[in-house]
């Protein structure tokens, strides 16, 4: 992909997230996205085929960025910190992800299922390590703990951004880690 094409797509992603963050996805039009990005309406269609194609690509792009951050984490605390930092950097994406993940059945359900599975598998590696080390409570499956941690991180990040913006990243991370450490202790 040429640098110009990538820059145009990035402008469209950023514009879509700004609009989604302020007015939501329902009723958002290609005209509004193009105007916000400062491009012609045809640019959206040329690059993505439709608004749905743009949203699909945006979801994939956003989750790829999150996955890259999570893959760099060596320990659970780093993983929690990376996820919270990501959602702090991209609060509108977190909002979009939460709203679309829980919509049943959503327009982007198939895409989100694949993306969710990618994130869960990264988290599951950490949870499996705790299980293998005997640090997971009896009866807690690594897959269940992974989904629970992912959901916790999404909701906590949104709560932080919307209702408790005065809290620091460290305070929020430490609060989540108190919960996670409780999961990591053998009963």
Automatic annotation (TrEMBL):
<feature type="domain" description="HTH tetR-type">
    <location>
        <begin position="6"/>
        <end position="66"/>
    </location>
</feature>
<keyword id="KW-0472">Membrane</keyword>
<keyword id="KW-1133">Transmembrane helix</keyword>
<dbReference type="InterPro" id="IPR050109">
    <property type="entry name" value="HTH-type_TetR-like_transc_reg"/>
</dbReference>
<feature type="DNA-binding region" description="H-T-H motif">
    <location>
        <begin position="29"/>
        <end position="48"/>
    </location>
</feature>
<protein>
    <submittedName>
        <fullName>AcrR family transcriptional regulator</fullName>
    </submittedName>
</protein>
<keyword id="KW-0238">DNA-binding</keyword>
<dbReference type="InterPro" id="IPR001647">
    <property type="entry name" value="HTH_TetR"/>
</dbReference>
<dbReference type="InterPro" id="IPR009057">
    <property type="entry name" value="Homeodomain-like_sf"/>
</dbReference>
<feature type="transmembrane region" description="Helical">
    <location>
        <begin position="139"/>
        <end position="158"/>
    </location>
</feature>
<dbReference type="Pfam" id="PF00440">
    <property type="entry name" value="TetR_N"/>
</dbReference>
<keyword id="KW-0812">Transmembrane</keyword>
<dbReference type="InterPro" id="IPR036271">
    <property type="entry name" value="Tet_transcr_reg_TetR-rel_C_sf"/>
</dbReference>
